[in-house]
Amino acid sequence: MNWRRYLHRARADQDHAQEFESHLELEIDENIARGMLPAEARHRAQRKLGNLTRIREDVYDMNSIRPLENLSRDIQYAARMLRKNPAFTAIGVLTMALGLGANAAIFSVVDAVLLKPLPYPEPERLLMIFEKPLGGGRNNFSSNFAVAAANFLDWRDQSKTVALAAANGTWLTLTGQGEPQRVQANQVSYDYFDVFGSPPATGRAFLPEEGLPGHDHVMVISHRYWYQHLGGDPNILGKSLMLNGDAYRIVGTLPANSWFERHPADVWMPLALSRASASREFHTLGVYGRLRPGATLASAKAELDAIAARIARDYPASNKDWGVTMERLADLVVGSRLRQSLYVLLGAVGAVLLIACVNLANLLLARSAARERELWVRISLGAGRARLVWQFLTESLLLSLLGGVLGCGLGYVLLRGLLAWMPRFTLPTQADVRLDWRVLAFLFALAVVSGLLFGMAPAIAAWKQDVASGLNAGRRGSTGGVPGRRIRSALIVAEVALSFVLVATAGVLIHSFMRLNEVDTGVNMTNVVTMQLPRAMQKDINPGRESRVMRGIRDSVAALPGVLDAAITNGMPMQGWGFGMPFEIQGRSSAGGSGKAGCGLKMVTPTYFQTVGMKLKAGRSLAETDVAGALPVTVINEAMAKRFFKGESPIGQRVLMQRIVTGKFEMGAVVPWEIVGVISDEKTFGLDRETGPGMYVAFDQSPVVGVGLAVRAQGDPIRMTKAIQTAIWAVNKDQAITDFKLLEQIKTESTANSRYNTLLLTGFAALALLLAAIGIYGVVAYSVAQRTRELGIRAALGASRGRLLGLALRNSLVLTGLGLAIGAVGIRWSGGLVSSLLFQTKASEPETLLAVAAVLAVVAIAASLIPARRAARIDPAMALRHE
Q1: Cβ 28 vs Cβ 45: under 8 Å
Q2: 118-150 residue pLDDT tens
Q3: What residues contact residue 776 under an 8 Å CB cut-off, 6+ apart?
Q4: Residue 517, class by beta-carbon neighbours within 10 Å (0-12 exposed, 13-18 middle, 19+ buried)?
Q5: Which of 463, 524, 465, 444 is nearest to 710 (CA)?
Q6: Residue 75 CB-density burial (10 A; 0-12 exposed, 13-18 middle, 19+ buried)
Q7: Beta-bridge mates of residue 732
């Protein structure tokens, strides 16, 4: 390029600009003299001339050959323009901060749960192994932790491809430090920390010999428990705590700020297993594995299949037709429902951000229309259209980045709120949710994309401007140009469509949640309080003594003034069955046609049914005479009666099921339990799940540890907690008492995740609705302002106020209707995302969609009505003098 010629041309353009400025000043003076321009406007005109001088200088700089200086000047100019319009800047920054902050908060959760690797060395090599019963799948009737101890020992000893470790959660009672306290423990095999590659921070892990009974009185404590309950004692190693009456020596502490801190366990203890006592029928362990060097998932599966086949051949009574299955731990820690919920929430905040961008695009379009004369002058002075487009994008990027800075703080606050209100155990314990550099990088990348997105609308409108017609239109009064009007209309349609999809999705979730809350729990929750009485498995628990202690606790509490009923149970309503057990019906070849069927099992005192308000459907209930040594009896629920006793009475028939050995992970002899009654179904695993078949046996005939107490009172039972504690400690002074909850609270907790998702999405939908209302109001108000002259002429010619009101409203209503139509199509796509989160509700229920469409239409009319009424009251004389 000939740089001298370029510079000469730039200087010539500057000279022409000076000539144009002088001509314009002379024209203004002449108009003032003739009375065509009000004298009081002279100061304003001179200020515009000053702006014109700066524009001319900026144009020269735009056409110069110093790109870095140009970038700096562009930023400075953009900052100056934003500073000159503080109201517009504040609205724009706050709008972007809301959208970006919400995205940052939700993305923090998505990143921690779905994107980050698990917090272990080589997490892709970690597995979880399950037993596979006849028919396939996992043995997870009562939980996912369902491997028998003896089978685990065989797997671990014989496998060459996988290093295996087992874990089992339990409760302990801490004594010697005031009132008895519950301590949550995780019993793990000695090689557990090696499998996960997570050694203790201080001290040591467990030794192989500490995995044998009698040598297991050691423990590793979490950093949280060490700091909160033991005062952060630096000399804690070697000290002992009294747990269940025995001294356990502390040999290590776990690292701070690790995934152990998010694990519910307070202490970690050896899982004492011996070949002599390990059961093949009591499935309770969670088994984890790490692929050894050179091993693959396929080779590990083939090896464990062969081991399982040998076990099934050698122990047919317990393992016939049983196999093994495994999955990568990374694929299991996030359930499909949680994954779907996160996708829906991420889509919701994305929609909110898009709506925010649409609003800002409309604001910038209106602002650029007010700056049309400036643009035309710049173009006439030689500024290239690309430079003007870049200037608009610079302003929008600066606005968006400012919103991103504010969005960081807002996102942090929102994230703290999300985590504080999130139901317990919603996220996997491995998830470390924080606003880290990954989230900040995402936030500012999103800010840049958003700035470009909403900055393109005014940039495109500026690109399409015609200089000659623009200057002429500027003299008559600008209307913003056809391109600007079309873009604004398209943006409003998009905003309404996005809002409709988001609000409709929230609507169906609300409808689903309402139906979920209306589900019959099968129990009477009025004035019933529950609590847990944790006791650990022990080798020396005497069944008769355990039964007498629990009966004494029940009777002591039942004798309190104001208590109507009290009952012991190993499974509270809506909190699961106590156990999942295989069974057969006596006299049949099998209960289910091949192999054993499964059902839930609860051990309860006879007062359980009246305490929680269940109804007897046939036969009799459990009685106080159903004690050890008497005929073993059971009451089954309606679901079991319908599934296994179709067309016949179950009363008098016998179910063959093993008795659980008290205080041990072992199964006893098969017992023929005679069915004496049928009871109504109670919800066990949640309101959204069908009640499965289940049995209730008398606690005296099959006592277990780890039970709870349910108490029905005449008034508010929470006021009686102190009296209940005193009554329990009068029977057993070392009994820990935890988790006081009303049955209403348990119901609330069972729907906590649905409520949380519904509230979050409803909040985002409300924000989207507010933004849509602001956007529609802004567009209608701007349209009315631009049509002031036209409306004044119509009023002067006799148009009524109703006619003017209709003219002002018509365009917004047409755009709203078009947006609703497009949004209705979008519901088909969004419905697939939320369908798995709904309960007895379709994603496209007509009544819900019509209600949401009506709400949006009302919002659009309300947003349009204020500027439309202003247009209807226009004074023709003032309107004709508008320009």
Answers
A1: yes
A2: 889 999 999 999 998 765 544 444 444 579 999
A3: 492, 495, 496, 812, 816, 859, 860, 863, 864
A4: middle
A5: 524
A6: middle
A7: none
Place of tokens 């404590």: 221
Domain ranges of the chain: 3-65, 123-332, 336-518+752-880, 535-735
As a three-state string, the secondary structure of 815-837 is HHHHHHHHHHHHHHHHHHHHHHH
Residue 355 has pLDDT above 60, yes or no: yes
The DSSP element (H or E) to which 617 belongs, if any, is: strand 616-619
Residue 46 CA, distance from chain mean position: 58
Q: Dig out the tokens for 218 from the structure.
A: 């050691």
Higher-confidence residue of 44 and 870: namely: 870
Q: What is the pLDDT at residue 425?
A: 81
Strand partners, 654: 674
Kindly tell me if the per-residue pLDDT of 248 is higher than 90: yes
Point out which residues pair with 290 in neighbouring strands: 126, 163
Residue 303 pLDDT > 90: yes
Token pair for residue 163?
A: 């290093």
574: Cβ–Cβ under 8 A, 6 or more apart, which residues? 521, 682, 683, 684, 685, 686, 687, 743, 746, 747, 750
User: Terminus-to-terminus CA distance in the chain, angstroms?
Assistant: 46
Query: CA 234, CA 247: separation in Å to the nearest integer?
Result: 20
Q: Give the pairing of strands 323-328 and 218-221.
A: unpaired
User: What is the helix (H) or strand (E) element at residue 579, kind and residue range?
Assistant: strand 579-585
pTM: 0.80
Secondary structure element (H or E) that encloses residue 284, with its range: strand 283-291
Query: Cα separation of 450 and 101, whole Å?
Result: 13
User: Which of the two residues, 523 and 373, has the higher pLDDT score?
Assistant: 523
Backbone torsions φ then ψ of 875, nearest 5 degrees: -90, 120
> Which residues make beta-bridge pairs with 616?
679
Q: Could you report the per-residue pLDDT of 199-231, keeping only the tens digit for each? A: 999 999 999 999 888 888 999 999 999 998 888
Cβ atoms of 497 and 819 closer than 8 Å: yes
